[in-house]
Specification:
Radius of gyration: 35 Å
Strand content: 5-15%
Number of helices: 9
Distance between the termini: 83 Å
Mean pLDDT: 78
Order of helices and strands: HHEEHEEHHHHEHH
Structural class: mainly alpha
Number of strands: 5
Helix content: 55-70%
Number of domains: 2
Oligomer: single chain
Shape: globular
Low-confidence stretches: 22-28, 51-86
Largest sheet: 3 strands, mixed
Strand order of the largest sheet: 4-3-5
């Protein structure tokens, strides 16, 4: 069929012209002649559509292909997960691997920065929108310095205020530590949300929290940090304490876990 396409096109064009030319000679009435011309025009259009449909030429919104070799025109094809309206499946295994490497590198730099100070807590942080992650850490020395500064400035500084300073990651000395190491992951997380490729944000956030917890599990396994409490948290979220407790349960030995559970007592 493909080899005959030029022939069928030419035949259709000649037939339409001959029929119309012949009808002009036979029909004297202008109105009738016009009607015949219209019928022939419609017939020609139908023939053209039939020829086109049988040619095997494919033309869709994403890929242009020739009828013979189906060769793709450069630049015309778009990956399925990049097409508008398509839901892409995030490669969580790849995200987990990137996060693990970022966490290990950030911790190694942090260990150098704190030197002999006592690192009492380290957390991976995200937020309800699941558009980014980061790391935060604090030392006993840093929190003690904050306590002393607050007592000098505020006579009403209370134990509850002290607990807040000690466990609120936004108050920590090393909050947002080495954010550059998490930039690649954060671009991917942001693209998923902004691109509208997330069907259920709660499910997506739960998956992200699981990946963060796993990254801290690997950190505990690969680095010496016997006295450091690890947990995952959400910023400015009513669910923060629930997430913190659940992750801490999995990440810490009993002695450290007891200290963490009593943090606001």
């Amino acid at each position: 069929m493909d080899e005959l396409q030029p022939f069928w096109w030419a035949l259709a064009a000649v037939a339409i012209w001959l029929n119309y030319d012949h009808s002009r000679a036979l029909i004297a009435n202008d109105v009738l002649r016009s009607m015949v011309a219209t019928v022939l025009l419609i017939t020609g259009s139908v023939l053209a559509i039939m020829v086109y449909a049988g040619s095997g030429l494919s033309l869709d919104a994403w890929t242009l292909t020739a009828p013979h070799d189906q060769a793709t025109i450069p630049g015309a094809a778009v990956a399925d997960d990049a097409k508008p309206g398509r839901k892409a499946n995030m490669d969580w295994d790849d995200i987990a691997e990137q996060l693990e490497q970022a966490v290990l590198s950030a911790f190694d730099d942090l260990a150098i920065a704190v030197e002999e100070r006592c690192l009492y807590a380290l957390a991976l942080v995200t937020e309800d929108g699941a558009m980014g992650v980061g790391i935060a850490a604090n030392t006993e020395e840093a929190v003690q310095e904050r306590f002393e500064a607050e007592l000098q400035e505020n006579a009403d500084f209370s134990p509850q205020d002290g607990a807040w300073l000690r466990w609120s990651v936004g108050e920590w000395e090393h909050e947002g530590w080495r954010d550059d190491l998490f930039a690649a992951v954060n671009r991917r997380l942001t693209a998923e949300i902004v691109g509208g490729r997330i069907d259920n944000i709660d499910t997506h956030l739960a998956r992200l929290v699981e990946v963060l917890t796993t990254a801290l599990t690997r950190l505990r396994e690969k680095r010496e940090m016997e006295s450091t409490i690890l947990f995952v948290t959400l910023t400015d979220s009513d669910e923060a304490e629930v997430i913190e407790n659940a992750s801490a349960q999995r990440l810490n030995p009993p002695a450290l876990l007891d200290l963490f559970h009593a943090r606001y007592a």
